[in-house]
Amino acid sequence: MSAITSYLKSLALLELLGGMRVTIGYFFKPKFTIMYPEEKTPKSNRFRGLLALRRYPNGEERCIACKLCEAVCPALAITIDSEQRDDGTRRTTRFDIDLFKCIFCGFCEESCPVDSIVGTDVHEYHMEERSESVITKPQLLALGDRLEQQLAADRQQDAPYR
Amino acid sequence: MAEIRNYTMNFGPQHPAAHGVLRLVLEMDGEVVRHADPHIGLLHRGTEKLAESKPYNQSIAYMDRLDYVSMMCNEHAYVRSIEQLLGVEAPIRAQYIRTMFDEITRILNHLMWLGTHALDLGAMTLFLYAFREREQLMDCYEAVSGARLHATYYRPGGVYRDLPDTMPQFRESKWTKGKGLKQANEWRSGSLLDFIEAFAQDFPTRVAEYETLLTDNRIWKQRTVGIGEVSPERALQLGFTGPMLRGSGLAWDLRKKQPYAAYADLDFDIPVGTNGDCYDRYLVRMEELTQSNRIIQQCVTWLRSNPGPVTVDNHKVVPPSRQSMKEGMENLIHHFKLFTEGYIVPEGEAYAAVEAPKGEFGAYIVSDGSNKPFRLHLRAPGFAHLSAMNEMVKGHMLADVVAVIGTQDIVFGEIDR
Question: How many Å apart are CA B180 and CA A111, to the nearest integer?
Fold first, then answer.
């Protein structure tokens, strides 16, 4: 008996029709896709994208050239040179990040004692020449300046967890 | 009469069904495979050797990149191995978080497998559906760690940060507004746990859809039933683990046999197959989706009612909180010490394994008492499975090679390491 019913079921293409019902059902449902890049998926405040350097509200750069990020970077993507500035504070003279080496693990942000180096929510960037993969201190600071409001808000929101 | 000889052909390394950079040298007799010879090494990055030159914590980021579709499980094995050497144990909340994310990872991995396996065998729709669900889970990854794939979230002694209380929300745009926006943000109004719970409630219906599309489908059955059969005895001899072993009918699962993290307290079943063919392994993995979902639901309930620390209070291993680091001299010293030198691990060796979605993923560390591992070896389940390729495809047709590669759930990151 079961052989006959399974034969009949098979002949009636039931399982294929069942599958088609699912797909046709989705045909009439709203789409899941979004219109990238005009529209973007939401990003968490912990997002680790392109790195940037921040400043204090008074405009002074945060980085004190302690080189913790350079030491902790697993991919050796960060290169720092430092010197004493005229006012006696230690500052970086060179802060290079090689984006080809960076693996966006976030250890640098974790290690930074002054919240200077941070992962922004920028995940889309391009370069036109190979040499542009190394981003320098002015570029990092400029990116930080541009996104400061967002960066500060994200850090504030995440502070209780860190 | 013309001389008939076997034809040798290359499958991959750029074949879309080779799941990465697999190169198979196939000896063909017409359409039938007589011998298959997998060549590996095209994705070799020297992770084990690299780890020898870095303090322990820095290699966590590289563990994600081994089996790059089950990221947190790899981290878990590595981190557990370090914890064994150090003699620290993560707090219970961290154990539950790890359990939950291991299971999220399992669903992520199985969805990836399901989508690509079905795509290889000619079912395109499922690929799109599976990736839709993966997107939700990757949002969980991102909410907790900041990265969609390579999380770097587990640490020796716990996890980096506690689960967030908010989820990022969709913004209004020309295309998404009003009711559509409300629908898109429906799960995102609460905490991460609310989001995961909403997902877990919805997921069984999704699995039912996948099953409708595949399980009884005659084309799917023709492509998978009786393909790549492995007997239980042979599966053991070949060193199979995970769904490959369970598909052959052996109920071996580290989560049950050697419980780690919080698995001992959770209620779940181990599905097993009977025939050991591609179809049975498909059924096993589908059931694992459901079981993982069950575990996630239990973890969510537990995590809701049990707040607490997520890292051990031992600043020789785990850096102090940012606030205390900025206020206390001693904490600042700990912070600097940990991020430059790392921690000293006592001399000895340890092996810790987890039930990764693909099978037993283990990390074996030999320590010589310094801050870097003397030797790290990673046991990748995919390597043992790929070694059985010849045995599984011998005598099958060329098109079945694709089914076998799919069923082995091969990812080259972990095989080549």
Answer: 41
Q: What is the pLDDT of residues B82-127, one digit of tens each?
A: 999 999 989 999 999 999 999 999 999 999 999 999 988 888 888 9
The angle formed by the CA atoms of residues A18, A22 and A24, to the nearest 5 degrees, is 110
Please compute, for residue A38, the number of CA atoms within 13 A of its CA located in the half-sphere on the CB side. Answer: 8
Average pLDDT over residues B318-330: 89
DSSP reduced 3-state for B25? strand
Which of B146, B162, B335 minimises the CB distance to A47?
B146
DSSP conformation letters of B167-207: ---PPP-SSS-THHHHHHTGGGSS-HHHHHHHHHHHHHHHH
Q: What is the domain extent for residue B265?
A: 7-416
Residue B403 within any structural domain of the chain: yes
Furthest-apart CA atoms within chain B: distance in Å? 90
**For residue range A75-84, what is the model confidence (pLDDT) as tens digits?**
999 999 998 8
Distance CA B271, CA B284 (A): 6
Q: Residue B405 belongs to a domain with what CATH number?
A: 1.10.645.10
> Tokens representing A78?
């960060």
For residue B277, the 8-state DSSP code is S
B326 in any annotated domain: yes
Closest CA to B333 of A138, A124, A113: A113
In which residue are the tokens 């780890």 written?
B51
* B2 domain-assigned: no
pTM of the model: 0.90
* Chain A residues in contact with chain B using a Cβ-Cβ cutoff of 8 Å: 10, 15-16, 18-19, 21-23, 30, 32, 34-35, 38-48, 66, 68, 71-74, 103-107, 110-111, 113, 119, 157-159, 161-162
| pLDDT at residue number B299 | 92
What total of structural domains would you count in chain B?
Answer: 1
Cβ distance A158 to B164 less than 8 Å, yes or no, reads yes
